[in-house]
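yo

u said u wanted the structure for the complex thing, so here. seqs first:
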Amino acid sequence: MKNNLTPRYLVILVILGWSFYSLWPSIKYQNLSDEEKESLREQGKLTQIESKIIRQGLDLKGGMFIALEADIPNLVKNLASNRNQKFDDLLFEVTNDFKSNEGSNFFDIFRNKVQSSDIKIVRYFHEYGSNIDDIISSLEEETEDSINRVLEILQNRIDQFGVAEPTIQKQGKYRILVELAGVQDSERARSLLQSTALLEFYLLKNNASTTEIITQLDNILKKNVSNEELEKLISETSTSNEQNAEDLADNNVTTVDEIFGETTPNVSDDIETKSDLTVDSPFQSLIEFVQGDMVVKTKNVYALKKLLDDDGAKLKLKSSSGQFLFSNNSETIGTSGVYFRLYYLESLPELTGGVVEKAKANLGSLGGGNAGLPVVSLDMNSEGAKTWSRVTGANIGQRIAIVLDNKVHMAPNIREKIPGGRTQIEGFEDINEAKDIAIILRAGALPAPVNIVEERTVGPSLGADSISSGQKSIFIGLGIVFIFMLIYYKASGGIANFALIWNIILILAVLASLGATLTLPGIAGLILTVGMCIDSNVIIFERIREELRKGKTPKSAIEAGYNRAITTIIDANLTTVIASLVLYQFGTGPIKGFATVLFWGILISMFTAVYVTRTIFYTITKKSIKTLSI
Amino acid sequence: MQIIKNSNIDFINNSKFTILLSSALILASIFSLVINKGPELSIDFKGGTLIAVNYTKPVNINDLRSKLKTVNIDGKNFDFSSAEIKHFGNESSVALRIANIENEPENFSGKLIEVLKNVFPDAYPKNKNDFILSIGKVSPKVGSELSGKAIMAIIYAVTLILIYISLRFEFVFAIGAIAAIAHDVTITLGIFSILGYEISLPVVAAFLTIVGYSLNDTIVIFDRIRENLKSIKKDSIIDTVNKSINESLSRTIVTSLTTFFVVLILFFFGGEVIRYFSFALIIGVLVGTYSSIFVASLVVVYMQPKT
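structre next:
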């Protein structure tokens, strides 16, 4: 045994000093009031402090985690030029295969399908290469590029949304992970992220062609959809069995003759008429007309979409270069229920959102038709302004639909030529929605739609619950262990307890300096480490007791006990270290938190439970003592 | 104070009862796993939506179930009455788990929250934030990725640990350790299956911890065996192993007891979110301690090449 303990004291002191140094920002941050935090934020100093504190995970703080995946099939579809039915069919097949085989690579399937069919792929991707390999590799590149762009755009959107500590990162090639701590309105955040923000301006088709397409569609659908099928469609979608006044109106359908006349639905229509109408004109039976607009009862929207999805209907629409789109929000019309408006538009947009330079949400000015309603004002770039003035100039008296993500926000009449490229969008539920849309329009449209593949939201109350129950378990657990150790090992148990407190402080210090996140499983890991740390001391103490029983002096028993216990401790702890490393490698979010705490906890326990306690024992036995309290 | 003083129990030759007990537990576990077609997996691995909400007063599960018989979302009818619905921590909180549905409506979880709000409008708290406890949504694709990862994690962890043991000890010890791990994980899985508890990501983490913990215990005993094999060569392997287990028995019991206290408290006070996680740890500590004494060493004795 070394007589000079000074180096040991120094090591312990240095580590002690370091742990307080790295814990200091966390302690300081804990004691900051909200106002102080705000003023530090304004000075730009808060982020600096926040990078040095133990962060609370989403499960403790409340907030949401979202994993988004770019819709690769759609992206590839958008990249293709001269698309035709053959290509769409191929892509459809590839997409189905891709979706049903989990973990498969889209481009591998795409390559196989292309090679096994007689399709000439160069036709659609001539800009990307002259053979399949070149095309696939440039498509892959293009996809990755797009994901990076998506990442950037989402970053922009989130920054403007105003969340305290957003993290956004890429996982693998096609996935983006977003963590929004403390987000209150998960729905709003979700739509902010997911909205592709594809802004388009379409001309409405005139009434004559609208009436014509409805008749034509009905002629096609009448053959394809049997009466029973449609009945089933409708009953499948209706809320409950008709008993109330609202449902009475169900049986009532405005016929095509009434299109531009009545707006109040006629309640006296009987079921028979409806059945006749359903057979002859399934499409028309689902729509009514109000103020020259087609409207569809909310519960019939699904049935109508299904009809429009019919192959024959799709073909017909394609050949008439038109499309049906629904309005953004439903509205209550008269007393007869809640409706969505339905528009028949040109299939090609006159203008798209790429031309938007500025977008700002405000309330409509007094005197206008939208006074007090939330609107988004747009400024277009010079090219966009030119097109906009040409389109509006050439179509005075017609209606133009402003479409965002395939939903019609408004379809105003063009009263005059709009030269400056300024325009306003209406039709938002509240100012928050308008604000979000403005953010999205400013940040730009996503090059590909993104799907939420994983979402975890923890409400603030559950988070607070978890913190308090975590703290409670730590204190009770520690208390019981402390008492047990004191009873079982007396003064030596006290030394072990001292090491244990040290162990916890040091783990927290390491977490703080790593800027690691403390999650609920992390707290569990901390509690488990308590057990592991105590185990080292138990192994040592049992050895010392054995040596004492053999009749050794306290001094040599301690020396022998530590020496013999150390290999056991290292062997036993290393296996757990291996398990924690693997967990860290494969785990996500909370599991990573658990693994981090477990890993550092075990390493630190080797220091506190072995090195620190040994130094204490050495100090005690400096003067030779006759008995050891163990 | 000392719980065990100079114990001298013949663990190896009196192993009939423990062999019987272990076999019975393993058989029951396997039986339950077979008739339930594998362990009950959470949305983490199967995909689906899990929503927990908090009403202002106690709600009846059957009542809620019948109200979820026909639910209209986006004009389409759904029947959620066969979904898994249970209380979450207390009588007024409810957790609803819905398996993946094809062509899931947009913003499905948000709309489900609305549905849950509307079924008991008078038990809805003033603030939406007090209502939503948690939302979890995992797509089947991510679910299968996560299961793949979890399986890989277990395989890697076990392989690496075994390599380590083979290097530090002899190969027979590694086999003993494998037997103990397999024993522990099978029984814990079996107990989860019998009780109908589901395996989530945190539970897998708990399983890996059990593996680490059980090995920890096993290695402490192995260490003694190795030490005693070196110092006392004249004794038979059975005597040496018995002596080693007895010598480390005091430590095994003290450590297991403290760890057991700690996880027990985690189970009772750690909150609803980690309930199954801590439950797995409780079972793990019990089974792990048992297996390090009765399984691992026994295998080492019987696998030891007879010289």
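Residues 48-138 of chain B form a domain with the Alpha-Beta Plaits fold (CATH 3.30.70.1560). Chain B has a mean pLDDT of 87.
cya
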